[in-house]
Specification:
The structure is a single chain. The chain has about 120 residues and is an all-alpha fold. The chain has one domain. The chain has 5 helices and no strands. It has helices at about 5-35, 50-70, 80-85, 90-95, 100-110. Helix 2 (about 50-70) packs across helix 4. Keywords: Membrane, Transmembrane, Transmembrane helix.
């Protein structure tokens, strides 16, 4: 897969996640509008904070694109890039939490859970 393809599919995956978040809010707005026969009908801005959702959608798309670009050589096809883009915030969060084996052993030793000489060879 070409690098830019992976980036685009990753960005689309990230953006779709935000659209899925918006869907219940849009449906609630539609239901309220259908119940109200008088004017003015409920405005969309009563249900959706558009600037906040736009910023989150942009952030998810950028994160998705970055993951797509970073993992482009790992993808067999567009669905994999799209899925990685959708999962980008969680993937990056997990990568940020990964500790090295040495750091984990040192922390365990400091807590007295294992002796220094019991480490993995």
């Amino acid at each position: 897969m070409e690098l830019w393809h992976a980036g685009v599919y990753g960005a689309l995956g990230g953006a779709v996640v935000e659209l899925m978040t918006l869907w219940p809010l849009i449906m609630a707005w539609q239901a309220k509008r259908q119940k109200v026969r008088r004017k003015p009908r409920p405005a969309l801005k009563e249900h959706i904070d558009l600037p906040a959702h736009a910023l989150v959608a942009l952030t998810r798309a950028v994160l998705g694109a970055l993951v797509g670009l970073g993992l482009a050589d790992q993808f067999a096809g567009p669905i994999a890039a799209f899925t990685a883009g959708a999962a980008a915030p969680l993937l990056l969060l997990q990568l940020g939490r990964v500790r090295s084996l040495a750091a984990a052993q040192n922390q365990a030793a400091a807590l007295g859970e294992v002796r220094q000489d019991q480490g993995v060879q």
